[in-house]
Here is the input.
Amino acid sequence: MDEKMMDLSCARFTEELASKAPVPGGGGAAAMTGSTAAALGCMAANLTIGKKKFLAFEEDHRRIISECDALRLRFLELMDEDAAAFGPLAKAYAMDKNDPSYAETMRTVTIEAAKAPLGMMDCACRLIALLVELEGKCSRLLISDVGCAAVSARAALEAASLNVFVNTRTLPDDPEACAMADKAQAMLEKYVPCAQAVADKISETLKGNKTEGKKMMIGCCAPAEKVKQVAADGYDYIELPGFQLAAMSEAEIDALAAELAAAGLPALRLNSYCSGSPAICGPAFDAAAAKEYAERLSRYAHKLGIKTLGVGAPAARRLPEGFDRTLARSQCEEFLRVTCAAAAPYGIDVLLEALQPGCCNFVNDTAEAFDIAEKLALPNLFLVLDLYHMKNNGESWNDVPRYISLTRHAHISTTLEGNSRGLYGAGSEEECRDAFAALKAAGYTGTVSIEPDPSALTPEATAECLALMRSCV
Here is the structure.
């Protein structure tokens, strides 16, 4: 074909694709899919830019438009590069295998044939990263287009990978071919879940608009050792401690995922983000350490199906006397930025939690937590509303409606001696009813976890608590 494929009409391209001609083939189809995905990303950003609600993201929109458009064109260039590499490969396959130059010629043209689809994969990964960002920064009228772009970008990534592997598999002992195959596999492992998380999140949003009549899901905050007990009690999900997961190996996380699946118990939420490190603020604050921890924990959480990371972590936000509060606020905001950035590719939200002064001395009021989340305006930053901490901090549950717009999860428990937390049971029925009444009065229909001290998690007590909570929903 004398014409460039990128210059063909859609009708002519698909006609050529359907013909007996060797090109375009799978590589060309992958590139075209990637190009249309990038165009959709451009469109969503173009139609959002300038809208009042999204003015804070205008610079981001301009960057996304520029980068998506560059990717759109690069995919088309790679389509022609892929086609150009087929001719020499076909000629090499026709060579006499006894020709002294056969082996080296085959190696050269095979490596060359794998380069264009590997380039398509790189473009698809860059595009997926942009779509992860765009999902939270575009008009809600356009999220279906972002979702279509994510699905298409994933398709382009996976389709292009097949065109890499079909070439590299013929050179199993060649270092360059093996390096290309390893790079392709690494891109699949990192970015396929990212694209799927965007698509899933948008799908859930589009299908989940109706909340009338929806019942709250009730979970239990408990360590991994309690999976079977929590499942046997009949809780809707378990909320696992972040610090425990962070200390596990990949193999231990995989084993825990298998145990959860066998028990039929989702792990939708995560609490106890860290013990004392990484610091959220204070003298020990280290943004690089916070980033590394968040990336590992987000990866683990994704494997377990966890949708939110709750950031309470009192030991990580205890300030020494006299520490600059303005600096602490700045450090906390940076902590949340890097944590949200690490969680976003997996479709995971980060939930800031206000804690009573008996636990720490920074972000004690729900109003302050709300203010931080509202001003940062990160697309995956919200609140976990803890009624126990509100009560012990002297805050009224009548104020719950003020914070409900950013609330994505709630914690409840009884108040025991000191800062201890307990399970609802005989004698605390009214307290349980009041907690659920406060949430329902605010129109909240999301997840609610009982968060007691671990020592309170006896089988009889957790089962009794669940029965009481169910009666209040």
Remarks:
- The first helix runs from residue 10 to 18.
- Confidence is low (pLDDT under 50) at residues 209-213.
- The chain has two domains: 5-207, 217-472.
